[in-house]
Amino acid sequence: MKNVKLAIAALVIGASSFMAFNISQTASIKGKITPATSSEKAWALSATDTVQTAISNGEFTFPTVKAGTYQIIIEAKAPYKNTAKNNVEVKDGGVTDVGEIVVNQ
Hints:
CATH architecture: Sandwich
Number of strands: 7
Strand content: over 45%
Mean pLDDT: 86
Shape: elongated
Order of helices and strands: HEEEEEEE
Largest sheet: 4 strands, antiparallel
Low-confidence stretches: none
Strand order of the largest sheet: 3-2-5-6
CATH class: Mainly Beta
Helix content: 10-25%
Radius of gyration: 19 Å
């Protein structure tokens, strides 16, 4: 009986931790690039988080990021140059649209 109570307590604590972790990471970032074929990867960098995503048809989405201030870096293909958008504020529970980022040669 003692082992059953211990197992139930561990399960409740584990489930609570998992739910708290998921709740704190509900923000996302999306945007577009022009020209659409100039890049294949986008990066989102903050003081505590670094994530990468693919660019498809000129659009990108970071589906799960922590709230904070990010720098979005578009990793360009030659002859284009890498491009950054600074000070992107991301809030918990929302979608931050960075709009269109122009990638120059």
